[in-house]
TrEMBL record:
Region (Disordered): 409-432
Name of the featured protein: FAD dependent oxidoreductase domain-containing protein
UniProt cofactor(s): FAD
Signal peptide extent: none
Family: Belongs to the MSOX/MTOX family.
Record keyword Aminoacyl-tRNA synthetase present: no
Keyword flag Signal: no
Pfam families, per the entry: DAO (PF01266)
Positions of the FAD dependent oxidoreductase domain: 8-380
TM regions (residue ranges): none
Length: 432
């Protein structure tokens, strides 16, 4: 294992960066290492992918390695004792996964995996629409075949992040900086720090780049990871509706990617886990050569405060709402958001040293499923930094040797249409 550096700079305070800071602060090996965490937004960064009303917490994966890691994270989420992560932040509502014939491979494999992980009773195959509707209990449903896992649920994402942030603060080991990093600072083939927009240069023995969907601005990830925008819509409920729907399971249609998470504080969320929108943006090549390259980068409510999802996205959410909860079918959406995934070809995280630049470690590629690992991913990232990446993830999280012309995530979980471009869809209009 490489000797611990005297200083580590982490760029990005989302699930990946913040959990890494925590793990490093707890490891005696890094007892003499200065830890600095820089983020462009004050915490909590409202447009980061780790901050939202809710995230699904599941071990329901078609891939056994992520299923097992998900199960280990769930054990922590389920601890609702005072002060524990799960206290008031996690709800084991159950998860109904449905898919159309021909697109049901992911759901069938996932069913096998969770059956292997769980004792009987928690997981039940749903063979007809009637069985699906009965379990969902909203007067609606979706699809013809699927299963329910009563041992999955959802978390209040922002509350989980606040809990983690407080734990990191309490260690007293991490210096928090609010500044935007505009470039990495190199000396030859070595990254020695980062330059902030205010001109300040922060030097470090190791730089950990965990800037989520923005990472491609600071290092060339073309063909390996890309930012994709995903559609979220929210609507208000009455107290009575909250009471009734608060007990529904999460419902996810794997064919369209549309899902509904049980409401919290009288707000219901309808969203789409799909191929998403790209936002091609011309930037200076991060290598400092002066060349201009085009990469997809996030465009969020911070860039455009009046941002509303494109019409096609809202229409999809509307159709899902009509099908899944017919009584709310015409209720207007009061809020919408485009949330950005750092997407990789197979939905694998990118947790690895950069192959050419010394002193640079990447912890990104969340691919729309990283949040649930909040209690366990920091240790995994730390192990990979120390050269001890777990065997089952060594290949998956490594720097990919091949590149793809345009990264499209084919992990089996994505619905909808690939190839949508945000500006093109936005031009067709928004707000129904
Ligand atoms: C709509 C949506 C739904 C999702 N649903 C689920 C789910 O149900 N279950 C699940 O497990 N996962 C889900 N995910 C995925 C999960 O949220 C992400 O994988 C995870 O949050 C990624 O964390 P991160 O730390 O990589 O990125 P982020 O949380 O985005 O953090 C990156 C941070 O970097 C900062 N930053 C960026 N650029 C710079 C810069 N130049 N200088 C300084 N700071 C910078 C940003 O401000 C931000 O705080 C979902 C994601 C989205 C978008
Ligand atoms: C940290 O510094 C102390 C005091 O110099 C030293 O005793 C200890 O071995 C160091 N720990 C590590 C992990 O380097
Ligand atoms: C998914 O949603 C679409 C659109 O509402 C619907 O036609 C299809 O039957 C659904 N499929 C499943 C498996 O739920």
């Amino acid at each position: 294992m490489p000797a611990p550096p005297s200083s580590i700079l982490i760029i990005g305070s989302g699930v990946f960066g913040l959990s890494t800071a925590y793990s490093l602060s707890q490891n005696p090996l890094y007892a003499n290492t200065t830890l600095t965490l820089v983020d462009r937004s004050p915490f909590p960064a409202s447009d980061s992918s780790s901050i939202d009303s809710s995230r699904i917490i599941r071990a329901d994966y078609s891939d056994p390695a992520y299923a097992a890691l998900g199960a280990s994270a769930q054990r922590v989420w389920r601890d609702t004792s005072p002060g524990a992560l799960g206290e008031g932040r996690y709800s084991e509502s159950g998860l109904v996964l449905v898919a159309d014939p021909g697109r049901d491979g992911y759901v069938r494999d996932s069913l096998e995996n969770v059956r292997g992980l769980l004792e009987g009773g928690a997981v039940r195959e749903l063979k007809t629409r009637r069985e699906i509707d009965a379990v969902v209990g909203t007067g609606g449903g979706s699809g013809q075949w699927g299963y329910v896992n009563w041992r999955s649920g959802w978390a209040d994402a922002e509350a989980g992040m606040r809990w983690l942030r407080a734990r990191v603060e309490k260690t007293g080991r991490v210096q928090f900086i609010c500044a935007e990093v505009v470039s990495l600072v190199r000396e030859g083939k070595r990254v020695v720090g980062a330059r902030q927009r205010d001109g300040i240069i922060r030097r470090a023995g190791l730089v950990i780049l965990a800037a989520g969907a923005w990472t491609g601005r600071l290092v060339d990830l073309r063909g390996r990871a890309t930012a994709t925008g995903q559609v979220l819509t929210y609507l208000d409920l009455t107290a009575d509706e909250q009471g009734k729907l608060g007990k529904m399971p999460v419902l996810l249609n794997m064919s369209t990617g549309l899902f509904i998470i049980p409401p919290r504080d009288r707000v219901l969320k309808v969203a789409r886990h799909a191929y998403g929108y790209s936002n091609p943006t011309k930037i200076q090549h991060p290598d400092g050569s002066g060349n201009v390259i085009e990469v997809s980068l996030p465009r969020t409510s911070i860039d455009d405060p009046s941002q509303w999802v494109p019409r096609e996205g809202e229409e999809d959410c509307r159709a899902a709402l009509r099908e899944m909860i017919p009584s709310l079918g015409d209720r207007p959406f009061t809020k919408s958001r485009i949330c950005w995934y750092s997407d990789t070809p197979r939905g694998d995280f990118l947790i690895t040293y950069h192959p050419e630049l010394d002193g640079l470690f990447l912890a990104t590629g969340g691919s729309g499923h990283g949040y649930k690992f909040l209690p366990v991913i920091g240790d995994q990232i730390m192990n990979c930094i120390g050269g001890e990446c777990p065997a089952e993830f060594k290949q998956k999280w490594a720097w990919p040797m091949e590149t793809m012309e345009n990264v499209v995530t084919e992990d089996g979980s994505r619905g909808g249409r690939p190839g949508l471009v945000l500006q093109e869809e936005a031009r067709k209009g928004s707000r129904l």
